[in-house]
Amino acid sequence: MNSQKKYPKFDKPIEDQLPENDVMIKLATTNTFFDIMDEGVEIGRFSAAFVSLVYKAFQKRIDEGLKKHKSLTHDQLIENDFTFGKYKLSKRNGAKYYDFSNCPDILQKEKELANLKSKHKAAIDGIDKNTQLIQDDNMIPCWIDSDGEIKHLGVLKYRSDSLILEKKDENQ
Known about the structure:
Structural class: mainly alpha
Oligomer: single chain
Distance between the termini: 33 Å
Number of helices: 4
Helix content: 40-55%
Largest sheet: 3 strands, antiparallel
Radius of gyration: 27 Å
Strand order of the largest sheet: 3-4-5
Number of domains: 2
């Protein structure tokens, strides 16, 4: 026998079938849960790593739900926004962009640019290996490439760290 839950089909607006007050109570309960988690970190009851794991798990589930319903949601929002309580969901059309993957001349220039960037990265990485640097007239650090040309030295920067949540293998 099929033990999956059967959910009602929403032919009417959801507000007519599910009282807004019930939904808002659940939202308030969820917000209270998050407040308790945040306060738990502040007072030392929970580790920040534990709370971040919980938040990432919520985020992962929410992202899965959004992805699952994306196409239908976009279809339903073509003509009107969806309003429920104090929230409004609307569709924003994606920005246009240009795809040059079938343009050999641009692909060649991108390859040349990648090679040039590779040389510059090697020069920056070479600083730790005592690569000799010079400075131009404006006191900007420079290096000399294999062709004897003086080039300005780029700057090594770091993007912010991120957290990764993965489902733990049950056999471990």
